[in-house]
Amino acid sequence: MKAAIRYEYCTPDLLEIGRMSLPRPGNDEILVKVKATTVNRTDCGVLTGKPWAIRLFTGLFKPVRPITGTDFAGIIVDKGDNVAQFEIGDDVYGFFDQGLSSHAEYVAVSTKKAVLKKPENVTFEQAAASLEGSHYAFYFLKDLKLNAGDRILINGGTGAIGNAALQFLKHFNVRVTVTCETEFVEVLKSQGAERVIDYQKEDFTTINEQFDYVFDAVGKSSFEKCKPLLKSKGIYISSELGKNWQNAFLALLSPLMLGKKVKFPLPYTIKRSMKFINELVLNGEFIPLIDRRYKFEDIAEAYHYVLSGQKKGNIVITFD
Ligand SMILES: NC(=O)c1ccc[n+]([C@@H]2O[C@H](COP(=O)([O-])OP(=O)(O)OC[C@H]3O[C@@H](n4cnc5c(N)ncnc54)[C@H](OP(=O)(O)O)[C@@H]3O)[C@@H](O)[C@H]2O)c1
């Protein structure tokens, strides 16, 4: 089968499309013919080994898995003896943030991992694009005591995480203000944002409004800058550690703070986030934003685009 292969942590230029033998499914595994996968920010970490902490999970000195890829949507073509919940021919999708080797024509996946039947109301491309950013969005928002009518500001509504967060918050009837560039203002309004701030025209930290939560989904701002936007007991959440890991330290100190607080949630079991995502997909409440589609052979180009930090939502890789 064709696969995207590298044996060292590297830049996209050194990622090669090569041939690997077809994986044989183990007793608890399914063999999936991949119809669509994505290149996402997690893939960039798995490819480059940066930030260094990711190597604790993907291999300290070199990648444990030569084939890249963390998510997939496809059709089961074979299965192990112990697999009872899936049948050959089922459409499935799944994600694993430490690497799945899914940038390939076929992938063997343990059914103990986060893999579910693909909802019929979405395409393979949409299913593959439903997972990575949404998984993080779920965990960043999960511990907030959200009430209908609460107000939240999301910095970065066109990121994979920010865009999934916008749609999830609509599910909870939370009032969302979001930032993005001019071209996407109408798109985000159509996805349910109450107000969209064009960051090319206005600095969101200077608006004269207050929110229950500020979620910096692109990690480009700080608690200090966003503090005036928060109500007296408001909470700041960021997707990034911030300068000198300040968001993690502020989150640790937050129980001692009387007023405004910082949360820095860590994502864990994907089965839990995927269950939530799957329900929203089934209900038609979440449709992932898809930016560009690349042919599998052009996957290095897709990586370059994702690493540029300019993708809008998700980048899909398709196979003939
Ligand atoms: N803590 C964790 O566990 C964790 C896990 C995964 C990712 N992350 C981090 O979370 C961040 C977001 O990830 P992602 O996958 O959502 O990223 P992404 O999809 O690559 O986000 C890129 C998008 O953000 C927009 N953007 C960039 N700067 C902006 C700004 N100042 N204001 C408004 N929009 C801005 C870009 O739009 P323009 O082109 O218009 O600027 C682009 O559409 C990344 O920094 C990533 O490293 C954290």
Automatic annotation (TrEMBL):
Q: Which parts of the sequence belong to the Enoyl reductase (ER) domain?
A: 10-317
Report the Gene3D superfamilies cross-referenced here: Medium-chain alcohol dehydrogenases, catalytic domain (3.90.180.10), NAD(P)-binding Rossmann-like Domain (3.40.50.720)
Q: GO molecular-function annotation terms?
A: oxidoreductase activity
Q: What PANTHER family does the record point to?
A: PROTEIN AST1-RELATED (PTHR43482)
Q: This chain belongs to which protein, by name?
A: NAD(P)-dependent alcohol dehydrogenase
What is the organism field in this record? Pedobacter polaris
